[in-house]
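**User:**
My hope is that you can spare some time for a protein that puzzles me. This is the protein in question:
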Amino acid sequence: MLKFSVKKKDFLTPLSNIQSIVDKKTTMTIINNVFIYTDENHLFIEATDLEISYKSKIPCSITEQGAITINARKFYEIVKEFPSEEIFFEEYKNTWLKIGADEKAEYKIGGLAPDDFPRFRNISNENATDLEASIIKEMIEKTIFSSSYDDRKYSLSGVYFEEEHDEEGKFRIRMVSSDGHRLSLMEKYIPEKGLGLNQGVIIPRKGAQEIRRIIEGHERMVLGIDNNFCFVICGNDHLVIRLVDGKFPDYRDIIPKSKDRYLTFDRLEVFNALKRISILSSDTTFRGVKASITPELIEIESLYKEIGEAKEIIDIDYHGEPFEIAFNAKYLMDALFVMDSDRVELTANNPESPCLLRGNKDIGFLGLIMPMNLVKEESK
């Protein structure tokens, strides 16, 4: 029968990590639970939604070896609010768990036998590399926002990951995401060896979010691909993610090769102007605006005027012929939000060409936004 004690601070972080993994909507009750078990001198917890699996090793003091599963949400809330920094756990009578702190507090919660819990998948470290965690964290943050939430666009519902090496043998890893209306690309050279990938893979959006979550605050991580799974090892945390079974579109074909017409602007100035103009949009996901560009100036106005009208004029660096372009302000705002550069370059070769965003402090990053048909939109 399971019996152990653990420091609250050691237990809380892994229990917090699993809250976004467990599938609260499933009818399979067992995967609403966290699997808790001991092995010699360590406590382990596991959680899964059948697509993402998490495992963590936690230091503790074990009196009796054992295993149990407990509702993940309720268990986390009890531990989080517990009044003692050291917590004692004891299984008793048919998978019930007693949670106490000396004689000052005692809680009892019913669990389930762990026999039917889907166990953590053993993976091969053959195609893996040790990386700076900050590299992957930045790459995910600068791409995941433009992945698709449309279940019908299965191959766009995650972040495409690939690697390549140049003639000098240097490895470069790249992440790309798109929802069909915009695209984000981030690439980095890494001093370490690559993963040995023959082709790119698609990490599901939820899986990428979980990777970013568990590597937060860590210096190093192990990232690898094993058949149809991506895995991450970071400190005592292990994550295994089932890859999306689909083919990512050839994104290279839609990125303009030339830079015939471009302008530069202050990133925060344009972001804040778009934010203010968007107040008058009734749609939270689609905020059409028209930009009129003349030498040294850009005038941005709301495209649809059912609620009201907004217009702002901003100084820019541009010396070409005047032109107009329409786009979804939310798409531009999302890209500007993840960028670090003070000034951003926007390439807009013609009304039909995708708009490209780059910044000198965002090395390796490229944002792409498809423009709207201005004539069609203004006639609505």
Remarks:
- The chain has three domains: 3-116, 128-251, 255-378.
- Residues 255-378 form a domain with the DNA Polymerase III; Chain A, domain 2 fold (CATH 3.10.150.10).
